[in-house]
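User: quick one, fold this
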Amino acid sequence: MEQEHHRPGARVEKTRKVRYDTQQRQTRKEDPTTIYGYIRVSSKDQNEDRQRLALRQVPVPERNIFADKRSGKDFDRPQYQRLLRRLRRDDVLYIQSIDRLGRNYEEILAQWRVLTKEKGVDIVVLDMPLLDTRRGKDLLGTFLADIVLQVLSFVAENERANIRQRQAEGIAAAKARGVRFGRPPKPLPAGFAGAYRQWRAGHITGTQAAKECGMPLATFRYKAEHYGQTLRP
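Assistant:
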């Protein structure tokens, strides 16, 4: 009888707990502290304003925006690693486009799984609505998101490879036209020619010749080798 007497109260308590848990989840979803944004530009010369503006319109709090000025070839970036440590289950991470997350095909897929599967974070790619893990939690939605992600990651990786190839071809073509890369060589000291001739004739040692030219022996020998090539007919 005592157990039956307390049963209605237990049901009321359970109902209150369910309501409380539901309210907590809703509050957490609306809480701006659970919303983050990530920005990446490849170099210090590139402007991040377009990405930052897109994240502010979400809106992502300024204090929760992490930005790296690093290549996207891997995920060893200080601000991304700091963000990764901050993220908790049910947080939402916004990025403007998939190539801002990275450019290495395999690593993007691996990192996506770390964020969504291991950490339980939702990811929203602003310029690709299909890449929004808050939607389509069913099997079909997950399947479509995975396919889109793989296609976009492949495109990003392929474009990166094409850029490297075009750069290599451009450098090769420039070298063929006689264009020199790197710093121009320093002019030889005024007494180098005389010291070189005496050294070649055996009148002085290499150490003495280097001293006359005011350079280390190894540098003198290197310069002498190239200088000698210019004198050959």
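User: anything notable?
Assistant: The radius of gyration is 32 Å.
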